[in-house]
Amino acid sequence: MRHATEHADLTPMxxxxxxxxxxxxxxxxxxxxxxxxxxxxxQHHLSRHGVKVGVTSLSYWQQGARRPQRPESLRxxxxxxxILRLPEESLIRLLTDADTPSAAGHPAAPRFAGxxxxxxxxxxxxxxxxxxxxxxxxxxxxHHERVRIGARRELAGRESQHIVRAQRDGVDRYVAVHHGDPxxxxxxxxxHALENCRTGRVRPDHDSGVLLAxxxxxxxxxSGDTFLFRYGIVDGxxxxxxxxxxxxxxxxxYALQVRFNEGALPTRCHRFTQHTPTxxxxxxxxxxxxxxxRSVHLVEPRIRPGMVGIGWEWE
Length: 315
Hints:
By secondary structure, this protein is an alpha+beta fold.
């Protein structure tokens, strides 16, 4: 079994690179090595935080043989960030980036409308068809979504503007995921490249309501490079829409604006958050509707793993 002390000469730059680029097990191993802690000491510190994790599990995590998934394991990961003196969310982000997949890269973190639907298996299959890994190599610095609700109260479409930073050399695309409302028809949706990009391959999945599309940069970014691009998806294939939910990992600012047709204004709007698709909702807050501009919005200064959305009520 390899021990952290074998890598005690790890430099701060190497640790930072591992935390930024992952994957999770490499970053965890690097962080433990940088602190020079044997796994028994890590386990002791975790127990002082009220978290029980075996040395064997810690060893498997840092080797990549297993991944923390259960709620207790995720609590341990958050405690490890404190114990190992790491930036907040630095390890959790790598788990979220691989499982969501990434909010910054492929794919764009799926949105859920109506009842939450598990899309990770579908997304993984579609990514495999495109020949792309789950690790995007991109980190979100800013994301602004504009959602349009049509005259039939349907989700007419959305536009997304992203500011991203490459976490490795050679990144040249983003894979976006759109999840329509129940009853939608992904085959009838269209994707439009609007700024600094063009549309590549598109993969619809009718059963799940998922549409996955490559957004090509036409340039290869170097590690540390930033890039801004904008694309849109025309939907309008389902019935009445009542909310828009965005799921993400970690990153910079996220802003969501919903604009309603002049003949279809809601009576009330509210913000909510959700840790996972099956968790109870919280963070409820009434949102005022800007009636002259028929819009409502929210701004999250810093993206944290989880879900945030806007819901509305019709007469």
